[in-house]
Structure prediction request, 495 residues.
Amino acid sequence: MAGIGFDLKKLFVGAGAIRKVRAYAYAGIVCSGTMLLAVVLLLGVQMLARRFEATESGVSTLVALMVYALMGSLLFSSVWQILLSRFVADQLYEGRPERVMPSLLGASVLLMVPGGILYGFLLSSARSVSPLDRFLNWAFFMELLVVWLQMTYITAVRNYRQILRIFFLGVVMTLMLGWLLLSAGVSVLTALLSAMVCGYGVMLIGFMVTLFRRFPRAEGSVFTFLSWIRKAPQLVWIGFFSMAGAFVHLLVMWFGPQGESIMGLFRFSPAHDTAAFFAFLVTVPANINFVVSVEVNFYQHYRRYFAAVTGSGTLAELALAREGMITSLQQEVFKLTQLQLFFMVAYSLLMRYVLEATGFTRPMIGTFQVMCVGYSAYAVGNSLMLTQLYFDDRKGALATCLVFFGLNLGITLYTMNSSGAYDGMGLAVAGVAMHLTGLFRLMRYVRNIDFHVYCGQPVLSQHHSEGKANLIQRFAWRAGAERQANPEEKKGEGI
Prediction:
């Protein structure tokens, strides 16, 4: 987070709507760029397929292969993403940037080997798809595994224009190549899968080159980051359950009464899946606003409090800084909730007319609107969970994710035989529960922040090489990094 935070604060300095638009655009690129790209390309290739008069079965096969690759790669990569974020932060704190890139390579290997085998087995059941098309979809899945991991590292680069260019080049290449191959008479499935592989391949190479320029030195074992599992095991499960909770209702519906077999082991619940796809887009504003709220607004108060802790602040100054931090946090959470609620209502009402025009039935629109409520609550709850990690409350963050996953799974299993009457209700209830659980835990934690900060420190001094960077230590590193990035800042404003 620190990387994007420095640049966002610079962009928000001074007046002007253009600077603010740029700031939100940069935040959007880092937080939701890859997902938005996937959505744009998913819609784009469907339009191309229909433009060249592909059959409905051909379009359904294409969408199934793309959705399974996207969702499967997200679930696989989620296991390592948050753990790697912590590992990279600790390495930068310890002054060991040469360990950053080896961890990316090691995590990629650990994902690609089992992921490639399992997804290959899944694809082997799709006998109706040609071997070439199965290989192309497999390659697309493998690329996605690496790209999701790269996005964990990309905030450390802070060259957002370059990142934007890579995204744009990937989209343009995919759509142009797809058009050219279809115009040349290549089959729809082969042409569009080839275009997706090439487009994401360009992104993968572009991001890798950008990261190696930022971290040219690479030393140490590629699997050093695995030792962080012992130091922070909750981070693995937090990453997995936060992502699995968002999609588990789809898996349940695939194997329920509404599920249909498309090819081999590939299953769909057409009405439920389509509604979920459009509803998931409602999470984007919360993801973007979270970065802006935390890094631009809340962090100033967060910094003031820890400056009092690590500096020579008096008890009165510490209490004042603590109350200011809590007040700021409450305000930002309220603003985030307001923004998400407004966008959810506006988006669901606007999309109702769009979906009606595209052939959605009333039950499908009802499911879509219920899911908008669920994903909106999930987006805010996920932001609260990430804020818990900001304070290193790993147990609280894990509990928040488990509540979401468990309720979504349990309620969806209970209602899947309701003939569509309660579709999306599991997601809606689970999302609201995640929101409330995260809010309660976070506010309780920060009101006792003095206890957690002082009593959570090691009694005996530990050398940095042990890789343990506690809350005070990591703040001290970040404050120093910010001062280095902003040398004009007055000495009295930070540490």
